[in-house]
Amino acid sequence: MSIILVGLNHKTAPVEVRERLAFNETMLTSALRTLVDSGSVSEAMIVSTCNRVEIVAASPSDSEPTLQQVCRFLHEFHRLPGLLYKEHLYTHADKLAVRHLFRVAASLDSMVLGESQVLGQVKTAYSKAQEAGTLGKVLNPLLNRTFNVAKRVRTETEIGGAATSVSSVAIELTKKIFDRLDNKRVLLVGAGEMTELAARYLVSEGVTQFLICNRTPERAIELCEKFGGEVIEFSKLKFELPRADIVICSTGSPDYIITALDCKRALEIRRYHPIFFIDMSVPRNIDPAVGKLDSIFLFDIDDLENVVGENLKQRQKEADKAESIVETEVEAFFEKLDTIELGPTIAALKEHLTEIALSEFERTRHKLGSLTPEQEEAIKQHLLNSLVNKFMHPLITTLREGTRSNNESYNIIELYHQAYDLKDRLAGFDERRSGTKDRRSPIN
Amino acid sequence: MQELLVISLAFYLVGLIQAGLVFFQKPRLPFAVTLVSSLSGFILHTVALIIRGKQVDRCPIALQPELLLFLGWSLAAYCVAAFIWNRNQVLTNYVFPLAFLATLIGVILPLPPVSPLGLRVGGSFLFPIHVSMVIFAYAAFFITFVTGLIYLFQERQLKLKRFKAILGRFPALDTCDSVGYSSMTTGFILLTLGIVTGIVWSGQRYGVYWHGDPIEIATMLTWVNYLFMIHYRVASGWRGRRAAIVSIVGFTFIVFSLIGLKYLGRVHVFVG
Asked: B38 Cβ partners below 8 Å, 6+ apart?
C-alpha cells in the first residue's frame, strides 16, 4: 500500500500552467471517478484552488509507477499532449506525501504563510471526494488526521495571528483606538483603489457612515453609490474634518492637503474626541506634524508596511514550531496506519494459533489424568493463551518494523530469523554439525 | 467569617486566572464561568462583612484589615456591576486582580476579635457612612487610575509607532477613556457624600467641622483635583491623555491619604 501525491503550486508553476491543470467544481467528481476507475489508484482526492492543484491518492501497488500514472492522468484529463508540464509537477510518496498534505492544510505552503482559507479548501475537496465515493480506509483517516494537524497548528502556534495586509493592519490599529466601529464616521479623501479597498474592509467591520471627498466629484459619487454616504466638495474638506472619526487619505496631490492647524480646529470643535488618520499617499498628503497633536493618531503607508513586515517575520518564526508539529504528526500517522493495516492479519493469526493450541490440548487431554474444571480452565485461559501470545509477539513486532521500513526485498526467511532471533541458534547448529564431523573423522 | 473570606477568595481566583489569560493572550474562560464565580465570591464577601459587623457590633470598616477587606469588596462590586451591566470585561481583567489582592491582604493581616478602641463612635450612623463612602469612592478612583495608566501606555506606544506590545492585549483607547470617566464621576459623587458626612459627623461629635489634619487636606486636594477634571471635561471636552494624567495625579493624593491613615492615623480625628 502506498500513499502518493502529485501537485503543482504557485512556487512551481506560473498561473498560465495552473489554470490549465486546475479542476473546477463540475469536473471534480468525474475526474475523481475516472482516476479511480482507471485502476491505477484505489482512493483519491483532488484539491484545486487558484494557487495549487494537489492529487492525493492511495494505491495497493508501488508508489513509483502510480506516480507516473497519476501524472499521465493529470495531462490526459485536461487533454494535454504527453507530459507537457512535467517539470512543473512535484511528486511525493508515503511520508513525503503525507507531510506535504499536512503542510498544505496547515498553511505552511501558502503564498501568505498562515492564511486560513486553504484549510477550508482542503475540507471542501474532502467532502467532494466523499460524494464521489473515492475515499477509503487510507485516505479517510489521513484526511481526518490532516484536519487535526491543521487545528493543532492553529491553536498551538500563532501562525495565523497577526494581520498581513496593509488594510487589515489599519483596521487592527483602528480597533486599538475605537472600541466599536459601527457608530463611527469615516472620511475618504481621494477615491482611488486604495481608499476603496480600505472602505470595503471598514464596511465588513460594520461602518455605515462615509464622507467621500475627491477632486473630481464624479468618482466620489461613484464610490458613494457603492458604500453610501455623502460627497464632500474638495474645497470644503477642512470644514468637514471635525465630523470624521477616521480619515483615510490617498490622493496624487504633491503637497499636504490636511495641516496641523486644520486638525487643531477640528479637535476643538470635536471636543477632543480622537481622530485616526491613515495617509496612504506618496508623497504624503497629511502634514506629519498632525500626528504630534493630542488625541490624534496618524499613520502613513510606511508605518503600516512596517507592521506587515514585522507580522510576517513573526509568522515565519511560528512556522518553525508548526513544522515540528507536522513532523511528529507524520510519524504518528504512519504508526497508526501500520496497526490499521496489520490489524486483521494479527487477529487472524491469533485465532488460528489459538485453535491449534486448543485442539492439541483436547487431543492430549486424556493423558493428563483427572483435572478439576478450574485447572482445565486455567490451562486454557493462561497457559495456552500466553503461549500463543509469546509466540506471536516477536513476529508482530518484526512485521510492523518490516512494513514501516517498507523495503521491497521482503524476505520471509529473514523475517523469521529476525523475529525469533534465530541467527545465534543457527550458528550453534553449524558449530554442532561441524563438531560431529570432527569427531567422526578419526574413526574414518 | 475568615472561612467565608477564604472561599470568596477562591472564587475571585477565577477572575484572576481570566485576567492572566487575557494578558498573555491565551484563550479565555467562558463568560458565564467568570460571572458566576465572581458573583458568588462577591456574595460570600458581603456575608462575611456583615458577620464581622455583628461580631464587633459596629460598622466593620475601621481597622486596617477591615479597610482593605472593604476596599476589595468595593472593587469587586464595581467589577460585578460592570459585568452584569454591559458585559464589560475591561474592568474585570485589570481591576479584579487588585480586588483579589486587597482582600487577600485583608485576610492575612491579623484581625482583633473585638474592637480595641472605642470605635462605636458615639452611636452616630454618620461615621460608617462617611468611611464607607470614602473607601467606595477610592475604589472608583482606583479604576480611573488603572484605565488612565493603560490609556497613557497605549497612547505612547501608538505615537511612537511601536505596535507589537499592545495589539490585542489591552482595551481600546476610547473604552479606557469612557470607563475611566464614568468611574471618576461615580467616585466624585461618593467622595462628596463621604466628605459631607465626615464634616457633619465631626461637627456633631466635636463641635468642630474642620481639623486641618493632613488626611483631611489630602482628601480635599483629591476632591478639588477631580472637580477640576470633571469641570474641564464638561466645559471644554478634555479627555484622553489629559484626563488620564489628572486621574493619575488624583490617585497619588489618595495613596497619600491611605498611607497617611496608617502612619498619621492618630492625627485624623476619628481615633481620638
From this structure: B11, B12, B14, B15, B76, B79, B80, B83, B92, B96
pTM: 0.68
Query: Domain containing A99: what range?
Result: 2-156
Contact A260, A287 (CB under 8 A): yes
Kindly state the cell numbers that stand for A431.
Answer: 558449530
H-helix or E-strand spanning residue B252: helix B241-263
**Residues of chain A positioned with their CB less than 8 A from the CB of B167:** 162, 172, 176
CB contact under 8 A, A173 and B163: yes
pLDDT digits (tens, 9 = 90+) for B138-153: 889 988 898 899 899 8
Residue A149 and residue A199 share a domain: no
Q: Give the residue from A253, A274, A307 where a domain finishes.
A: A307
Instruction: Determine the pLDDT at residue A443.
Output: 45
- Are B270 and B117 in contact by the 8 Å Cβ rule? The answer is no
Looking at the fold, whether A68 and A124 belong to one and the same domain comes out as yes
Report chain A's mean pLDDT, rounded to a whole number. Answer: 86
Taking the C-alpha atoms of residue A208 and residue A53, their distance in angstroms, rounded to an integer, is: 39
Q: Is A14 within 8 Å of A36 (Cβ atoms)? A: no
B117 touches chain A (CB under 8 A): no
Cβ burial, residue A39 (10 Å; 0-12/13-18/19+): exposed
Domain boundaries, chain B: 1-112, 125-272
Residues A286 and A407 in one domain: no
How many C-beta neighbours within 10 Å does residue A218 have? Answer: 9
Task: Tell me the helix, strand and coil percentages in chain B, rounded to 5.
Answer: 80, 0, 20
Whole-number CA gyration radius for chain B: 19
Give the minimum alpha-carbon distance from A136 to chain B in angstroms, rounded to a whole number.
36
Q: What is the tally of structural domains in chain A? A: 3
Q: What is the DSSP letter of B126?
A: H
